[in-house]
Amino acid sequence: MRLGALLLTGLALATASLGAQRKPALAWEQVPSLAWQVVPGSLRLEAPVDAKPSVGPLEARLTGDGTLSIRDARGIIRLRTGLPGRPLKAWRDGGLPLSPASGAWPFPKDSPLSQGLGGLRWVAEDFRPFLRGLLWILEDGEGILTVVHPATARLVHLPLPPGRDLELRFLPDRLVVAAGDVDRGAPRQWSIPWMGLLPRLAVLGPHVDPNAKAGTALAPFPKE
């Protein structure tokens, strides 16, 4: 009996160990790094051109424990998920700060990214107006920036450069991350052009249903 118990215990431990090894990676653990560039010196913080927050029938709600939910005008939850950590800082649209970082905010159901990348002016001198309708969340681990698009109920995780007490600076042509505390000799500021972020932000746009039937010249709107 003791031998059988020992065998069963060993089997259970081996199964548990195998299950731990096969534990799926979290969404923010799978994202590749970004091409952050070191910024020498200091940069002047510029306010967004349009200082008014976007409004609309959608509600983005973020709690202090990092639970994010998106509700439509009927109160139907379109997205509910957990973030990498607790919200430390948050911004909306093209860089408007939200204080506190947890709360509930209205968002529009249409925005430049609602039309996909085709709704953006790639050569615009100031790209920030085309960030309307986005929610940017920095968690307390300060290693991941979560960008949420309430209009499509989609989000993307962006890995940040090393540093502590991070602050985002939304400039016309790029996003800057400034660290208040870094290791000795390490850079304090990093940046990436908005054009360099577009491949990641494209995930926030509408997705085409691969199972949808294609129309023809005679039947542009095929029936089910």
Explain what the structure shows:
- This protein has 224 residues and is of the alpha+beta class.
- It has one domain.
- Helix content is 12%, strand content 31%.
- It is built from two helices and 13 strands.
- It has helices at residues 2-21, 194-201; strands at residues 37-38, 58-62, 67-71, 77-82, 87-92, 96-98, 103-107, 135-139, 144-149, 154-159, 164-170, 174-181, 189-193.
- Strands 6-5-8-9-10 form a five-stranded antiparallel beta sheet, with no helix packed on it. It has a four-stranded antiparallel beta sheet with strand order 1-13-12-11. A four-stranded antiparallel beta sheet has the order 4-3-2-7, with no helix packed on it.
- The longest helix is centred in the first third of the chain and has 20 residues, at 2-21.
- The chain is globular and about 55 Å long.
Key features of this structure:
disordered N terminus, 13 strands, 4-stranded antiparallel beta sheet, 224 residues, disordered C terminus, alpha+beta
Structural class: alpha+beta
Averaged pLDDT, please? Answer: 80
Got a strand count? 13
SSE ordering: HEEEEEEEEEEEEEH
Query: Roughly how much helix do the residues carry, as a percent range?
Result: 10-25%
Strand count, sense and barrel status of the largest sheet are: 5 strands, antiparallel
What sort of overall outline do the alpha carbons produce when their principal axes are compared?
globular
- What is the tally of helical segments? 2
Ends apart, CA distance between termini: 63 Å
If you compute it from the alpha carbons, what radius of gyration comes out, rounded to the nearest whole angstrom?
A: 22 Å
Order of the strands making up the biggest sheet: 6-5-8-9-10
